[in-house]
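Protein entry
_____________
===
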Amino acid sequence: MSQAPDPRETTADALRAAAETMHAVRDHCVWTQQITHRDLVPYLVEESAELIDAVEEGSRADLREELGDLLWQVLFHAEIASRDPDDPFDIDDVAAGLTDKMVRRHPHVFAGETAETPAEVLVHWNAAKALEKHERTSVLDGVSERMPSLALAHKLLSKAAQVGLEPAATARLQSPDEDAGAARGLGGQMQSRGSEVAEPASESELGDALLELVATARAQGWDAERALRERLRALRDSIRSAEQGQ
């Protein structure tokens, strides 16, 4: 098989060189030629997780590298799609669609509308999105069940609020002198005991308790998924210290 030309020598555009590199790899690498969209899913999950690590605890060099690895996944999927016999599209089509969407969703940047606050920006964004997704019949349409459970809980709580279902944040936010029986959580299982919360007595009640905590995070503007990740990092460090006898 003939050698592919080095894309860095044929174009000064770094993004175009990356796309041409992917194209050449697909043409000349026997492993890559066998890969499908579905085959790539585990790598996409892994690279996304590594990018999160780089954002939250990595160096600038780590961040740059992991962004590149995630970009490679996008280029890989687009290259596979470009060879579909029935409905092909390539990275240029992906980029064009993205640009069109972002211009539509930022009329305060590109179309003379006004947005002086983040809340006003969100109004424009949601209005544009509603026009694009007019065929959707539920606020749950487009919400992936494959999201991590805590992140999904946060997302579903925001969707519940959109339809007027706004659960109490959590029993922990109740007044300490509030009657314990009056402070019921999302599943009706958790009760306030001053500043404490009743310990779950079953797996079902545990689910209620976890959802209560996510509701607390949402009410406070916290990220429940990140909070748990950071706590797990501390636990990981403690485990390593224990292993080393420290």
About this structure: The longest strand covers residues 192-193. The two ends are 56 Å apart (CA to CA). The chain is about 60% helix and 0% strand.
